[in-house]
Protein 1
Amino acid sequence: MCVLLAYEAPANSMIVRLSTAFSSDDTLEIHILFHELITEAFRNNYASGNIWQNYLTHFILSNENFFSLACERRDPPQGSLRDIGLHDFEVFMRLFALDNEHMHYIDHFVGDENQTSPVCEISKAIDDTHSSRKIYDIVTRWYKNHGVGYFSTRKAFRYDGKNFIALNNSDVGDVRLDDLVGYEAQKSELRANTEAFISGKPANNVLLYGDGGTGKSTSVKALLNEYFADGLRVIELYKHQFRDIQSITGRLRQRNYKFILFIDDLSFEENESDYKYLKAVIEGGIETKPDNILIYATSNRRHIVREIWKDRDDMEHNGDIHRSDTVEEKLSLASRFGIAINYSSPRRESYHEIVRTLARKSGLYVDDKELISGADRWEIRHGGMTGRAARQYVDYLSGRDVK
């Protein structure tokens, strides 16, 4: 029985059920459990190698308890806590070596590149050693360098009101900042702020604003891919969750990661007031925002909250100064972002260069005059000259095997 991990305790746990099925030689139950193991493996991207060993490895890397969280925040514990941990890894080693005549069904999966994860690498490293002390070192080193739980192996998350739900890494893609053609000044400022953040230096919340389809959201995804190994994680939030932000930041405060709370397409209509919750968290609330959390938001509006002409009826006259309290209240949210980066639609020459660059990267070698002529016709029907329109046009050509 494990003291810290306690994964043998529940009567319906996979380990207890499988051990019972092996003991009774219940072939039907064994195959049902193997089906569940394989389903979990594909769901969590570790369907490569020994599925049983990967399942155990995934569990131990994901199990948040006072031992694993202590390892995440500091060096491995000493004294009694260390001894308890070593005991648990001895139990883990015996479970890892569990054998049965049916195990051949799940002990040698050949996965593809989309079904591998760090879990497979750690599982293989554990399989190569037969020492509980070495397993202890492998796992606690992982806790220290990468953290524990889903945060250790996944890049992006959403919040369902109670828990952080991990998104598959494939949902984020593998886009990099260099893949976003142009916008060099914008990318440089965004990169500098993010690098300061993950280095523990002062950094600002960021508002990326401007025309649709210019790469604002793509830039944030690219940051996540480039700095994931440095502990950067992204949690996507929606407007209806702003009232939960204090709770969210409280749960992330003590974790050994750098979190970006990402709000895509942020805007408020005149009758919406939930922006006040966001404003209080960014700056000005009694409880300060943790140092390991920043807010990055994208918006098509520079000032986020919609202004209407009647707002200007609320005037205060002070000599030659005219001041509207209502307007100031609405504009104050945008001013809370320390950095505001403008992504405007490119001029025609820049749009053409984006098309050329994307075409080369996609292996398209079309006559330049024909390529640009087609791009101009495309942007007229597809929302104007934007990076998104350029990508859609190149994908359109690629899908028709244009060479």
Protein 2
Amino acid sequence: MIITRTPFRVSFVGGGSDLPAFYRKNGGAVLSTTIDKYMFIAINSSFEAKKTQLKYSRTELVDDINNIKHPIFREALKFYNVSGVELCSIADIPSGNGLGSSSSFTVGLLLAINAYQGKSLTSEQLASLACHIEMERLEEPIGKQDQYAAAYGGLNFITFRPDETVNVEKISMSDEKKKELEDNLLLVYVGGGRSASVILQQQSQNLSLSDKFVAQQQIVALAYNLRDALQANNLDDFGRILHENWLLKKTLATNISSEHINSIYEQGIAAGASGGKLLGAGGGGFILFYCPKEKQEKFCEAMKPYHRTPFKFDNSGSRIIYSQENSCHGF
């Protein structure tokens, strides 16, 4: 049996610039971190060698992997021509909440299958393969940031070039300032878990409009500004940059935000946060707020009606946490 653990991510600035409709023309950039909320994938040889069993929110048992209903399980197993296994997934947080869970699932699954076959992959290979499965084989209208964040782990500045290459640059900060940043970030769950595909499809289409494209360029510029500030150990503008990013992001598609989300965001700002943003494509999930520690008592009191999820930064990326060969016992 092999078990992999893959972190979820929190994207700060630059989201949307990892969509092919944008980075192939302009180049994109995202600043994000992985956190200590994980996707776990376990793989083991099936008791019945000709059966493939999957356990996620549903259970599937098939004789032919082409008949698997779960699209990522199906395409990953077909890509490697693997059958006769049992696969199980467990997550700390349900899917559809803006933390990149789908790509964490894909990355963790690919790492598990390769380890099962006795192969190892670099973080670059793992991320690139996950993009291939999701964006090319499944033709999902998504970007590349989540796959690279999950594979590499840590606080990163990720750039997406028009030639399809991706560069991952670790953000270098003092331990003291990094801990201060971690302490000042608060996750508030606003409900309404959703599929990102519809929103991202509209956002990609809208990038053909000049005003949307310019807004996305401004978001990329903010990502570079935040990178420079963090590497100078300067947190003074962190909240402001998040806020400017959020204002621009809301203009990119009609269903990114809602009156409910806007109301919670405004409550958070009034209670002491200097900025924030809805995570993921939009529509629901988690709002990330930046709130200095001295103002958090008032903030937490105002946010009591909503579920707050504590977290810490993760630096490890997708990894194998358990591996043991099966053994046969005769009589």
Protein 3
Amino acid sequence: MIKIAVSGAAGRIGRTIYKTLIGSSEYEIVFGVDAFGASDLPYPVYKSFADVTLDADVIVDFSSPSALNDILAYALGRKCRVVLATTGYTEEQMNRIRMAAQQIAVFKASNMSLGVNLLASLSKEAAKFLGEAYDVEIVETHHNHKIDAPSGTALTLAEAINSVRDNSLVPKYGRHGTDCRREKNEIGIHAIRGGTVVGKHDVMFLGAGEVIKLSHEAESKEVFARGALRAASFLMDKATGFYDMTSIIGNFYAVTTVSAEKDVALLTLPSIPFADFLALLAEIKKQDVNLDMISQNYNADGTAAVSFTAGQKDFVRIKEFIPAHLAQNIVLGAGKITAEGAGMEHKSGVALEVLSMLRDLGAKIYAITTSETKISCCIDEKSLPAAEAALKKYYGIN
């Protein structure tokens, strides 16, 4: 049972956490802290952490930046983990948080929704793909009680996009006046406040004759409560360190898809001039054959060592273009096992996990290719079913 302390216990999300955990066998709220107090909650609520005499495993904070010193003093004194879901921290406060993370485990996110963090990832990919020809604007909408503007999530989205644009974009917070023509290097950030909107974020890429919009809307505060509790669980085996939502994505979503392919052929060209390899690819293209798992490196004599896979039926069509003296470097009847997931980008050691499992199964590994989000292995076909089952079981994939 994870013992939770709720900071901001009387607030909207503080109360949502309480309702979410009714009947929970995994979490227990041992106390709350709220500057305004709360007598209607079934656990003690203190006005300051300085008044607390109880222990907790994790503080989940949905209060305000002004509470940070109080929270960190308690956490550092009792070696308590902290989940910070509050936005609006100053740079000085952020430095204080990072220093605290050298002694305790701290998790901070401007938005605890996994969907919002996926939005950030998709926005980065769109910004990379579309480039400077598209203007970027962010519009966020929240309820009329939200204090800070723009939202911390909007700023996080802007930072994510700017990170793939060489940090060349300058934030423009709203527009007003008689001459508001857009500068090329701007990223517009706009805030709307009204009603009971839980949270909505739109990222727009505006080009010549078209607009691409990525959106996320939270329909319930429960999504933030559950995200914070997931962060609390994530911290339980951490003693120190500074973590964020990418840490969870990397930990829980490193591999989300495992696929297996039969009847794969592997060709290895241990020594071929690179120009000749390009000529070979040109001939293969004429046959309308797609190659896979292409890997290449240079030998000491300047030639290239190249491997690639293709479907076995396709391989028959291209075999005539392969130099005769390399025919012995062909593996037929192989298989390909692929593990893929967005979280790989944020978690180290996935390749080690996959390769270790294949080794333990006795699989013969002929070739390996990797990217930030995928690892593919060409293996003997008889090991393919066991490899697929083992990887799916390990990564919890049905």
Protein 4
Amino acid sequence: MERLIPVGQVNFVAAKDVALSRLGIGFEKLDRDVFNPEKAYDKVSAIGVKKIRLQSGWMKTEQQEGVYDFSWLDAIVDKLLSLDMEPWLCLSYGNPLYTDIAHVTFGAVGCPPIGTEREMQAWLRYVEATVQHFAGRIKLYEIWNEPDVAYSWKHYDGEKSEDRDMRRNALEYGEFARQTAIAIKHADNNAEVAAFALGKIANLEYVNNAMSTGLFEVIDYVSFHIYASNDNKRAQLIRSLLSIVHAWNPNIRLIQGESGAQSRSDGHGAMKRFSWTQDKQTKMLLRTMLCDLYADIAFTSYFSTMDMIEALHGRVDNKASYLDFGYFGVISAEFDEDGRATGTYTKKPSYFALSTLAALLQGDSHAKNIPYAVESLPSNRVNGYDFDGSSLQVYPFHLHDGRSMIAYWNGVDILTSTYEGTCSLCVYGQKNDAIHLCDLRDGTLYHLPEDMVEDLGNGGVRLRNLPLLDAPLAILFG
């Protein structure tokens, strides 16, 4: 980057300064009191994303049969609304008042109320009460979390993976979600419903079986999660899911509701013990969210705001079972003896990368068909020629302010490889009088020296020997 001329910085924006955004972030697990939201509100609202995902905490809200205390969740929702963020609510998990295995499961995680009619009716009453209570404040409701994954759809304590019947589970979830969606819309006819929160996006058979219950008739969105250390199949997986969803109902849109990477190698949860660093987390955030924004989805949400315990397999009688720390947050913290995120909440490099994306890709920013060609020109920077291989990723966008942006990177495996080289692009039909390069990791803007920009006439420009990294950079036109 030393050949380039620093000229400034992307102006970061807060949520209150953004009317619309297809970027979101997670604010989950507050039903289990895993971090102090008061210490995080100012930082999360300053990122510039709008959508913020909460979990409803049935067990925390209904501790006496038929009595709902929403005060804890009211405080969170109202504070986020005051910061011009848009909370959406994942309706979850179980409740020991009705379901036996919830007595021994920390946070009643993955204890669906499907064993008896009493359980199901109690769930539906809770759903209706929740939606009525938040009508006018929350519009989008998601039904359960990762029901296709073993930890989150259990029939009895100690159920083993080999005992799972995925067809049965899909049909159970489909009927459960169908009835829940009807209850949501009965309570608030302006509400929107997202189903699945899939833990495994490639499990199309599960989706197909669940949809066969009639679920496809009563939902507006299908939400999915992707946790993978290699992102080269991400766009294909999204297209495949969209295809099967549209085979049932072409009006249903997709939401990417959870995706992220750890910032340390000693974390628990998805992709645990992989060689993660803060730098690798930042690269993964940028690469995956750009891919999502380029796809035909409603919005994409990063997991998560805070480092916190995973607690997916916790038992009430064994504190050690839920003191399993995950480092997915764009904000880091220390932890107390109960696993609660405490101490100083500190912004990681990934925080500034997400802030950069939020500022650039706000409003009606969307994928754009920009004519371009990749060239391999002589490059002294690499003692040879530019890179033009198949792992070169190029994502053109129309920005909210009328400018165009081309994000690009070399999609090598983030865990095992790094890359620094050059590439050359011929781009057509853009404003070529003001071209800048942006390092999306921190928002630094650079002017390209004259020997890197060649006017081809008729709206064409050749950009010679651009820096190429395994982290996304962006060319800004206009």
